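Input (structure):
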């Protein structure tokens, strides 16, 4: 070695002398790049040819100081790392240096073998070097360990949007452009979907409606390290929740939409503007339905209605050919959603109007996203039907009755699996005269009928064919009820069981029986079964059909196949089978009696609620003993006899003053008033009758008042209908020759008046009771007992159901006060 050495002073005053010759040699910067990190800014190296000699001398001195044992990483956080090591003998001071890509920091540790390094950057890799320092300041060889801090979990991890089968998640991750994110969707503790993405949002599809899911997200570094998990939860919407949101009916679910709301007069009800949004569709349907408009089910909203079709580029990838699928709703879904939102009185009004339009009405209403359903007995109680079956001996006779009381053969149509035949369309053709086709049931070829159903699967609809007595027009000679189950019987076994136990015959439409025929044979049914298949479908297996027919003990006549024939011939064959069932099978069904079977199968009945049942009992207690209408009115409603008629004449004369003659007007008015007072005194002698006491007491309960009035009206109509129907027909016939039948018409008019009994008679009696009471002195108890009647009448006037009934009767009864 030559002289001319350069001395290098190390950190903490440790001095190492080396000698080097001055000569040209390659640079060793790369080799010492990491080592230089152990040195502070004052520390320098001299380049020369004797670097190797320098290293050996330096290393020999470093080896004199024992180095720490291996460094262990105990804990790693997002901004800190905890290190631990074993201390060599006689060493109490250590120097720790650490660096990331850009910076180096050094710290001294005394009398300790662990340390927590803080203020680190999340998601950053650090190299930690630890050296021992002796009492005289000498340093040992450094011991290194590399650790990466955990990244910070994504912030504001939340659910942006929830659908029936999808959930959209978003989060914040500023400054993490190079990172990836692992997002997992879990249910019941197991991961069902996961995705790695570099974006700040992700969408999970193909989820189940109405289910709760947990979502976990971690940030993934390039080296594979991950952050802590951030968690959020979401429950997918049920099909009914999604539909109600689209239709704007969320606030009315369940059963909060009232008849008074529908009958409100506003801008929407007096204009004929087409639907501008999905939320307009249910209101447009209700508006048309209340007007008994047969186009009520043809409601459609199209967002591109005003768009110039010529400007659309059909070759543009963004052009949506399926826009109609997303911009409207199947009519059955609108009907089902409205029935789920409507209260009992609106349901009853809707069913009545739908029947007038000859629409099918709900028999079993599905409770969406569950296997439960509701038997709609109360909703159908207000349907009145009048028909003339061919079996009547009197050619001019007819039958008029509530449909829930009528005993009719019930023929049900269901589907097993997929079916290439449109069951509902075949039914419409079966029930329609060829010259007067009518869509009783919604089918795929109607407006929006091809849009997939969301909530109406499981719906059982009912329609009726009622003959008019004309053999040239009538499709069937006798009345028949027809039920139609929407959806596959494999999914809706409860509805199928109900139809099997209540129907005269069940027609099962199928393409492929496969092993599903066992479902047909397992039903303890009283109905006669018919299998209806389409031979034009490749899925039909004749051998399986034969095995199924044998298993079910079906005859050849019980199998109806559509071969190479059109719908007209197929419907003709089906018609002959149904006609044979109507004429030859004695089993008939009464809707009012089906609630027993519904209860046995666990099906809820809409009129089972307490208010309805209590009102029913009160109404029946008041009306069941009425045998003679005229006698009942004389005994229980005495204030509407001769005295009331005389009072009406006096009040009319008070207004007209036609009989005053030459008398002084004021004197004449005074005389009239005296006569009225005398008549009122006669009225006040009557105590309130037992029937009126029951009536007023029932009206005093605000919860059951509406149901009570409805039950009363139906019961009183049932009592009067038998006699009134024939009297009105005779009256109508005599009025055609009025001049010749004046006396007979007058007699019929009196008979009609005597036979009629309705709520109006009870309300009128309430008014007369009050008028008679207020003519008495104020201190009398009988007067005080009647002072609450005006309040009851005022509350009745605010009831939409009563207003609707009054409008139908074309009369409004107001009580004074």
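Output (sequence):
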């Amino acid at each position: 070695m030559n002289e001319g050495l350069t001395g290098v002073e190390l950190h903490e005053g440790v001095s190492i002398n080396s000698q080097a010759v001055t000569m040209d040699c390659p640079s060793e910067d790369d080799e010492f790049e990491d080592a230089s990190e152990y040195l502070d800014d004052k520390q320098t190296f001299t380049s020369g040819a004797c670097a190797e000699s320098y290293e050996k001398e330096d290393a020999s001195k470093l080896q004199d100081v024992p180095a720490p044992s291996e460094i262990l990483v105990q804990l790693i956080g997002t901004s800190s790392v905890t290190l631990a090591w074993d201390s060599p003998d006689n060493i109490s001071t250590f120097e720790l240096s650490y660096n990331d890509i850009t910076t180096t920091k050094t710290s001294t540790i005394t009398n300790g073998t662990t340390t927590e390094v803080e203020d680190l950057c999340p998601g950053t890799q650090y190299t930690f070097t630890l050296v021992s320092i002796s009492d005289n300041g000498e340093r040992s060889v450094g011991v290194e360990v590399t650790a990466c801090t955990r990244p910070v979990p994504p912030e504001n991890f939340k659910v942006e949007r929830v659908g029936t089968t999808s959930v959209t998640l978003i989060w914040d991750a500023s400054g993490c452009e190079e990172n990836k994110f692992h997002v997992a969707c879990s249910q019941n503790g197991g991961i069902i979907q996961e995705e790695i993405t570099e974006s700040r949002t992700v969408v999970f599809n193909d989820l189940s409606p109405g289910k709760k899911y947990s979502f976990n997200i971690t940030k993934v570094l390039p080296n594979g390290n991950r952050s802590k998990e951030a968690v959020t939860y979401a429950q997918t919407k049920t099909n009914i929740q999604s539909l109600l949101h689209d239709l704007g009916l969320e606030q009315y679910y369940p059963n909060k939409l009232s008849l008074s709301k529908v009958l409100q007069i506003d801008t929407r009800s007096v204009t004929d503007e087409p639907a501008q949004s999905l939320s307009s569709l249910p209101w447009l349907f209700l508006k048309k339905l209340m007007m008994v408009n047969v186009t009520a089910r043809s409601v459609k909203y199209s967002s591109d209605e005003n768009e110039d079709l010529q400007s659309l580029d059909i070759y543009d990838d963004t052009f949506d050919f399926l826009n109609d699928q997303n911009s409207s709703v199947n009519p059955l879904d609108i009907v089902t959603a409205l029935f789920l939102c409507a209260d009992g009185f609106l349901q009853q009004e809707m069913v009545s109007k739908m029947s007038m339009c000859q629409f099918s009405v709900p028999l079993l209403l599905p409770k969406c996203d569950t296997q439960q359903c509701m038997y709609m007995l109360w909703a159908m109680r207000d349907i009145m039907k009048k028909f003339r079956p061919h079996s009547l001996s009197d050619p001019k006779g007819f039958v008029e009755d509530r449909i829930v009381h009528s005993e009719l053969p019930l023929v049900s149509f269901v589907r097993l699996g997929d079916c290439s035949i449109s069951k509902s369309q075949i039914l419409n053709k079966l029930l329609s005269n060829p010259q007067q086709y009518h869509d009783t049931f919604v089918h795929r070829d109607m407006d929006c009928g091809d849009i997939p159903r969301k909530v109406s699967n499981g719906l059982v609809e009912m329609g009726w064919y009622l003959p008019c007595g004309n053999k040239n027009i009538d499709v069937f000679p006798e009345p028949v009820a027809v039920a139609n189950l929407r959806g596959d019987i494999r999914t809706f076994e409860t509805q199928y069981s109900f139809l099997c136990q209540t129907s005269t015959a069940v027609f099962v439409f199928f393409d492929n029986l496969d092993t599903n025929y066992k479902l047909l044979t397992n039903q303890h049914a009283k109905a006669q079964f018919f299998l209806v298949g389409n031979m034009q479908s490749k899925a039909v297996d004749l051998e399986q059909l034969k095995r199924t027919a044998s298993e079910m003990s079906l005859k050849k006549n019980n199998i109806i196949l559509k071969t190479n024939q059109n719908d007209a011939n197929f419907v003709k064959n089906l018609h002959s089978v149904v006609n044979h069932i109507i004429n030859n099978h004695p089993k008939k069904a009464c809707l009012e009696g089906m609630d027993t079977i519904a209860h046995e199968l666990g099906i809820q009945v809409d009129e089972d609620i307490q208010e309805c049942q209590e009102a029913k009992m009160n109404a029946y207690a008041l009306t069941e003993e009425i045998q003679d209408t005229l006698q009942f009115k004389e005994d229980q409603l005495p204030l509407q006899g001769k005295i009331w008629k005389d009072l009406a004449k006096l009040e009319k004369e008070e207004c007209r003053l036609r009989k005053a003659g030459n008398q002084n007007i004021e004197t004449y008015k005074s005389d009239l008033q005296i006569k009225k007072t005398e008549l009122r005194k006669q009225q006040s002698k009557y105590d309130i009758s037992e029937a009126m006491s029951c009536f007023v007491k029932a009206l005093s309960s605000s919860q059951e008042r509406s149901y009570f009035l409805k039950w009363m009206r139906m019961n009183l109509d049932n009592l009067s209908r038998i006699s009134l129907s024939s009297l009105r027909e005779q009256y109508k016939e005599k009025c055609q020759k009025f001049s010749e039948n004046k006396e007979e018409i007058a007699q019929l008019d009196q008979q009609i008046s005597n036979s009629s009994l309705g709520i109006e008679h009870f309300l009128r009696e309430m008014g007369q009771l009050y008028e008679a009471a207020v003519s008495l002195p104020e201190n009398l108890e009988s007067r005080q007992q009647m002072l609450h009647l005006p309040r009851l009448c005022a509350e009745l006037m605010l009831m939409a159901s009563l207003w609707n009934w009054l409008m139908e009767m074309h009369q409004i009864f107001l009580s004074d006060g």
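Notes: The two ends are 130 Å apart (CA to CA). Confidence is low (pLDDT under 50) at residues 1-57, 305-309, 317-324, 809-817.
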